[in-house]
Design goal:
Layout lengths: L20 H6 L4 H20 L4 H13 L4 H22 L8 H18 L4 H21 L1 H8 L3 H23 L30 H19 L1 H11 L1 H6 L4 H24 L16 H11 L7 H21 L5 H30 L1
Length: 366
């Protein structure tokens, strides 16, 4: 007896040349960020179990501490600042450069905005706009210094930004202690900015203000440039292979200068937003103490610099940062555990880089 054999479509192997669903899922760019977060959550759970703490209760406190209705206003304001600092790192990262000078750039932008707000004789909205533009311009020029240092003196951007940052922080500290200090206060801070220099609020929100809109516009601009322009294509080409990009005629020095200037401008914007928001003054150390720069770097690394993924990764680190206080208050877990979780994410991403580098070397040697 003969007959035609039939095959169940569900078990039929994918035709050659067409990627299977599993292979597509494994190669999806969101897999590594999601996997890193899952690993971090599991590591945190193990640490808490070893300490006799209920991890479900602790993580519930994190979520409620960040996303409860009463806290959402503050969470949005932190989201804006971390998102801005994530852009500061992500823009040069698209071309394979690492900007670790976010602290110095944000301080320079903040102190410049404070100087304009205090001393520029401008009215109303114009004063706010000029203060923001001045802060962004000062930080952009400062960040762009790393580009010619890399091009002409072969000093890596990651080194020059790291070494220049403390200089800018010290310069801001000097100004607020000796030149712009509030003489009636025992704290190193500028006088309170006039009402005309206050950033506008969003409705009835107390913490989130127009700064959130400005940062989201910067994120949108980055996404458009990255995905819709030749400059974005050239940045991504250099990020994938600098040698290939140079061979294809991409002007590395010019792109490096533009990327660093853009990153610095966003850092200056973040600094200006912080100074033009409550308590409406530049306070020595207040712009760097919350750790927004580190959280932004972690979020940008987690997203691989991709602007479309940045909102999600920034949201994760915002919840960890803001919810850490709720975890400490409601579950009696030190908020430093949220810093540990962020560090675990970075370690997982670093391990991925090491594994990929070894695979690449093995491929070349094979």
């Amino acid at each position: 007896m003969t007959g035609t054999a039939t095959t169940d479509p569900a078990t039929e192997p994918a035709p050659a040349g067409r990627p299977s669903l599993l292979r597509t899922a494994v190669r999806h760019p969101a897999l590594v960020p999601v996997g890193a977060v899952v690993v971090a959550v599991l590591v945190g759970a193990v640490v808490m179990l070893a300490s006799g703490i209920d991890p479900i209760r602790a993580y519930t406190a994190v979520i409620e501490g960040a996303l409860a209705t009463d806290n959402l206003d503050y969470t949005l304001s932190v989201f804006a600042l971390i998102c801005g600092m994530a852009l500061v790192f992500a823009i040069p990262l698209r071309m394979g450069e690492y900007n670790l000078g976010g602290n110095g750039q944000v301080v320079l932008g903040g102190i410049t905005a404070a100087a304009v707000g205090l001393y520029a004789p401008l009215p109303g909205v114009l004063l706010v706009a000029v203060a923001i533009l001045a802060g962004a311009a000062a930080a952009a020029v400062f960040a762009a210094i790393s580009a010619p240092l890399s091009e002409r003196l072969r000093i890596p951007v990651i080194i020059s930004t790291l070494l220049l940052s403390p200089i800018a922080v010290a310069f801001g500290s000097y100004l607020v202690r000796f030149r712009m200090t509030d003489t009636g206060s025992g704290v190193s801070q500028t006088p309170r900015l006039p009402d005309a220099a206050h950033l506008g609020s969003l409705g009835d929100l107390r913490y989130a203000n127009v700064g959130l809109i400005l940062v989201l516009l910067a994120l949108l601009a980055f996404w458009l440039v990255d995905s819709r322009t030749a400059v974005g294509y050239e940045l991504r080409t250099l990020g994938a292979s600098r040698r290939f990009g140079a061979y294809g005629g991409v002007h590395i020095g010019r792109l490096n200068l533009g990327a660093m200037a853009a990153a610095g401008a966003v850092a200056g914007l973040v600094g200006a937003i912080m100074v033009l928001s409550p308590p409406y003054r530049f306070i020595d150390g207040a712009l760097t103490a919350p750790g927004y720069t580190f959280a932004g770097v972690a979020a940008a690394l987690l997203a691989g610099g991709r602007p479309a993924l940045l909102p999600l990764t920034v949201a994760v680190f915002t919840i960890l940062q803001v919810g850490g206080s709720g975890m400490e208050r409601d579950a009696d877990v030190p908020r430093q555990l949220s810093d540990v979780l962020q560090a675990v994410v970075i370690i997982v991403l670093a391990l991925r880089t090491v594994v990929e580098a070894r695979r690449a070397r093995a491929g070349r040697s094979g």
